[in-house]
Design brief:
The protein is of the alpha/beta class. Helix content is 37%, strand content 17%. The chain has helices spanning 54-65, 73-83, 93-113, 117-120, 144-156, 170-184, 201-211, 230-239, 251-259, 270-273, 276-288, 302-312, 362-367, 380-385; strands at 4-15, 21-31, 36-41, 128-130, 133-135, 161-165, 189-194, 220-222, 244-247, 265-268, 292-295, 340-342, 345-347. The strands form three sheets. A seven-stranded parallel sheet has the order 5-6-7-8-9-10-11. A three-stranded antiparallel sheet has the order 1-2-3. Strands 4-13-12 form a three-stranded antiparallel sheet, with no helix packed on it. Helix 2 packs antiparallel against helix 3 and helix 7 runs parallel beside helix 8 (230-239). The N and C termini lie far apart (56 Å). The relative contact order is 0.17.
Length: 392
């Protein structure tokens, strides 16, 4: 039976079109069968403000993985969770680490069986997923015009649904929505208002009443209360006609949201829950609780996005527009064949290609290589708004 013999971790820093550089780790797991699985620890450039030492991380992961059979997914994931535990925090870096390893294990197992990852996950129910492009948060009214330019550009590329980060400057949010409705009419939909835990539920409720007068096909309200404020989510859910969505970042947190009937839609992303194995479990838990799901994102590169496309195309309870458009936000990537977007849909890689269906490009890995995951001179303001502009 196949055994794991080695592990490689490659740190890369790739700029977004905004100028902000996001750091990711590309994973390679080698085996005695000559097969290599690839994965992605996506976007470490998030709060909390600490960085992971890659040398120490590799040694720790090797102590878990070396000699293991990659098909022992549940056993390996349990040991990974014991060493990189859930913390009830959105951007816990342990979840990013578990996600990268679990993705690579799925790639390995599917390659060994000569099938695609989606078939390894149980087979496809669709070939593509409707996705939206993010419009990042307005700080100033002057930023409205540049965000309208983003809508114009992306609409020309086939993206007709957008997710709007809101809550920092409501006057600017209103101006943007008014201008979108005036210029684009029914050609453009705003899928969600994403508060990203900025406001308490009462302030979010007041903001929702201001913003929902612009009828642009709104599907949901996202994260309209502080993290883990389950009572606040429930109270807001009682007071608005729009579905409430929240990310799943631990099974304990998901259990509390189900128990308190706090939300309508679970936002599930492998990077936040710790891999494809955990994301499947969270999706099945949502189905048992009669909740819809949407596939979330931390803006992955093509390796991580391919894993999400395989997952999304294998799930039956995705009934809303999803979020994975990460590769469209970056000026480059580290693969030979990027994931495909067409007419606002993310397509799963060719089912006849085994594994994730993505191949790394050695020259691009070298081009974007960075020595570590340190923060350098990045400010908290830049982190929150994903921009290189240091204006506060």
């Amino acid at each position: 039976m196949m055994k794991i013999t080695d592990l490689e971790l490659h740190a890369v820093g790739i700029p977004r079109h905004t100028g902000f550089v996001n750091k990711h780790v590309i994973v390679r797991i080698h085996t005695d069968e000559g097969l290599t699985g690839i994965g992605e620890m996506s976007d470490f450039s998030h709060l909390p403000l600490y960085s992971v030492d890659l040398h120490d991380l590799k040694q720790g992961l090797l102590s878990i993985l070396l000699g293991k059979n990659p098909f022992d997914l549940m056993k390996i994931n349990k040991e990974l969770t014991d060493n990189f535990p859930e913390t009830m925090y959105y951007y816990e870096k342990g979840s990013f680490i578990r996600n990268g390893i679990d993705n690579a294990l799925h790639d390995l197992c599917a390659k060994y069986l000569d099938i695609s990852v989606s078939d390894f996950l149980g087979g496809r129910v669709k070939e593509k997923i409707k996705v939206c492009y993010p419009i990042f948060r307005h700080r100033f009214l002057e930023e409205v015009e540049s965000n309208l330019d983003v809508v114009r550009q992306k609409l020309n590329q086939g993206f007709d649904v957008f997710r709007l980060y809101v809550g920092k400057n409501l006057d600017a949010d209103e101006e943007f929505l008014s201008r979108v409705k005036e210029e684009f009419g029914s050609r453009v939909r705003i899928k969600s208002y994403d508060f990203s835990h900025l406001l308490n539920w009462k302030d979010a409720h007041r903001a929702i009443k201001r913003l929902t007068k612009y009828d642009l096909g709104l599907e949901m309200i996202e994260s309209p209360a502080p993290r883990n404020d389950f009572d606040g989510l429930y109270q807001l859910r009682l007071k608005t006609d729009y579905p409430i969505s929240e990310h799943v970042w631990s099974f304990k947190q998901q259990q509390e949201m189900i128990k308190k009937d706090a939300i309508d839609i679970f936002n599930i992303s492998p990077v936040f829950i710790g891999g494809l194995t955990s994301a499947k479990k969270a999706a099945y838990a949502a189905e048992v609780a009669s909740k819809d799901i949407v596939l979330g994102t931390t803006q992955e590169l093509s390796v991580g996005t391919a894993a999400m496309a395989h997952l999304g195309c294998s799930l039956t309870n995705i009934n809303h527009t999803s979020d994975p458009t990460g590769p469209e936000l970056y000026v480059g990537d580290v693969v030979q064949n990027r994931v495909t977007y067409k007419d606002g849909y993310l397509y799963a890689p060719d089912r006849t290609v085994k594994g994730l269906g993505i191949e790394l490009d050695e020259s691009l890995l070298a081009k974007y290589q960075v020595p570590d995951l340190s923060w350098d001179n990045v400010s908290v303001h830049q982190l929150q708004d994903r921009t290189a502009d240091t204006t506060s």
